[in-house]
Amino acid sequence: METVEKKKRTRAGTVVLVSVPIALALLFLLLSPIRGFANFVTRWFSRPVKALMGTVFGVIPLSVMELEYIAVFLFVLIWNIRTVVLAVRRENGLRLALRRTGVFLLVIAYLLTFFLWCFAIDYRSDSFTERSGMEAGPVELEDLYAVTKLFVRNAALYAKEVTRDDGLHWAEELDGYLEKSEYIYENLSNEYPFLSAKSRAPKKMFLTSRVSSWMGFTGVYFPFSGESNINIDAPGAFIPQTICHELAHQKGVYAEQEANFVGIRAAIASGDPVYAYSGLLAGSVHLANALAAVDSVLCQSLIPLMSDEMRTDWNDNHFYWQQFEGKVEKVSSKIYDGYLKAQGQELGIRSYGACVDLLVEYYADMAHAYEAAE
To answer: What is the value of pTM for the model shown?
Structure first.
């Protein structure tokens, strides 16, 4: 009798454990499209949870994301090997293997549920453009050219203020400007108070930076540790802006095109020449690519405005990423493109270039005023 009752309790517990992630996933599908609900969950649950994790894991100097990758890999490997061994050696091996497989899938289901409610929900909440009142609309060629010219000119000036080696290559120490990252948003948060959440310095990806380059990523915001991670193998001149981009995700800017814009704005507004130059350089690349797509001759006319230092960083960036062009990067881009579209970012991977609209909207008047004063 006692055994029967125990089996009933075990079955009931199993039903509950399986039902919870299914129920939460269904609730997410039903309620997350409701903007007010998404805003509420994001403000009072997902952001506080990620901030807490970021604070807790922030005391660990190494990237917790990389440590978790290793731990998960080892767990999956050992768990599955043991499952196969038990299935072969035990009399009831097949039943035991199925049970262990069920437990494994249940763990994945809970992790996916956590991801939905602590990260995917954020994409359904108010965007940066909605909170700031900006509108990323159609871009006039005249405005695009003026803003690109403004960025190239200013980047050329700031390029001379950063440390370089004898070949004019970037030689700034990463740790030097990484330490400043916690305060780099102070000026921009005065303009946009909703960005005033505490910044936590990104972690350096010691083990997976090269892998990230093969996949086409310069940084990663990891929801399972609440930390930002940067690819330290990427060209150094662009890393400060990448830091600002990843910090934008910490501060609730989730759409990639908006995080690019906010990261560039934060870098320029910081008052730090290293960050300002990196933001201007990254902005120049985005703008010049957009300009070249509609008028390559007009874009070529801006090349003489580039300083030798800026041209060196531009070329270093080009040649670095050129080596990774291939099947791995294309497959990774397709996967990430699908992920972004699944989160409601219709532009997909092209969202990384859509920040041009916001840059032109913000800087167009300034650019035209600068030209008029010449």
So the answer is: 0.88
